[in-house]
Design brief:
Elements: H1 2-16, E1 25-31, H2 34-38, H3 41-48, E2 53-60, H4 72-77, E3 82-86, H5 95-116, E4 120-124, H6 128-139, E5 143-147, H7 156-167, E6 170-173, H8 176-184, E7 192-194, H9 198-205, H10 212-215, E8 220-221, E9 230-234, H11 244-258, E10 261-265, H12 273-286, E11 292-295, H13 300-309, E12 312-315, H14 318-321, H15 323-327, E13 331-334, E14 347-350, H16 354-367, H17 381-391
Parallel strand pairs: 1-2, 1-4, 2-3, 4-5, 5-6, 6-7, 9-10, 9-12, 10-11, 12-13, 13-14
Antiparallel strand pairs: 8-11
Length: 404
Amino acid sequence: MLSAAKSKIKIIAKKTGLLPERKRRKICFVITNRIHYARQQLLLDQLKGDPEIELQLVVGGSALLDKYSDVLPRLGAKGFVVHEKMLNLIEGGNHAAMAKTAGLAVLELANTFQKLNPDIVLIRGDRFEQLAAAMTAAYLDKTVAHIEGGDVTGTIDESVRHAITKLSHIHFVTNEDAYRRVLQMGENPAYVFNVGSPDIEFAAYVDRRINAEMINREGVGGAIDFSKPYVLVIQHPVTSERNNLENILKTLRAVREAGVQALWFWPNPDAGTDEISRGIRRFREEYSVPNVRFVIDIDPRDFIALLKYAKCLIGNSSAGIKEASYFGVPVVNVGSRQQGRSRGENVTDAGYDAGEIKQAIDKQIIHGPYQQSFMYHKPQTSKMIRHVLKTAPLYTQKRFFDSA
């Protein structure tokens, strides 16, 4: 696959007459959420270790806050240099807070990009702060590279993802469906690369056993006996819906009635997060749930170890669509957050109904592991991205490519 990326770069250079500059490229990666570091570790290692690349890290948003797992200690422990920190997160867990957080990110990043003067601004996913980064970089005439464009989810995140695609110049998609969609959006086929998912590459790389003692020191609730069956629960707010409190209570009831041990992860800071947090606290006060432990975050490698051996993943995290499919872990996908996303046979959908969710959990646990899916996996994902970033001829003026 790496040879295919190299061949594509040569074709670009020949067709356009553009050649990569003979200089050390400055690549700026923006981290505004714990996931941006957790799932891109191998890629960041590749970029940091290349003598022809100067990696610039900008960290802001919830990635700087302890309540959402501050990534700075982890970056420092791995030898990464953080070039700029941006204090742009407005808490409140509502739509106005999200909009204002994105607005502050534009102000912060305008100064940051002018100061660092990167050749490429590298962006991942569909978070609102990433849209701010793409917009700011585009107005400053910077080349924007986007990881994970072309996916569909059925929420506001999908609109944000497609908006970032239209502001980006280099596209690293994770699957064939996404590749097709990005071309349908009028992007230059020469600059669209199906490299697979860095998330799956990292998951395949991790070789780690569950550290039960360490995990049971985190969070609150009952201790988990990992020698017995357990499930993972990750349910984030859906920003386009107004009943996140009611929805999380239904999932809580379903997991309690299922009676299986559960490690429950705290939600991300999107609009609606306060409702979910309130629902979890209320449920813990009203009911005895000795078989459930609630945690904010754990080391990404420990999460992969837990996922590998879980009987089921419940909720609406993309980990259920991607990493779980690679390991063949059964998934109960609750609600609309991942609607339309390409998924493997391991995923069963359930609506916001406690009985339906509980029935799906029982069914998936009885079924057991599914066949491993390679839908989002390609070998050498990070190496392909690194090669393109440092060798592709750069441009900033976009035009629409009509596939018709």
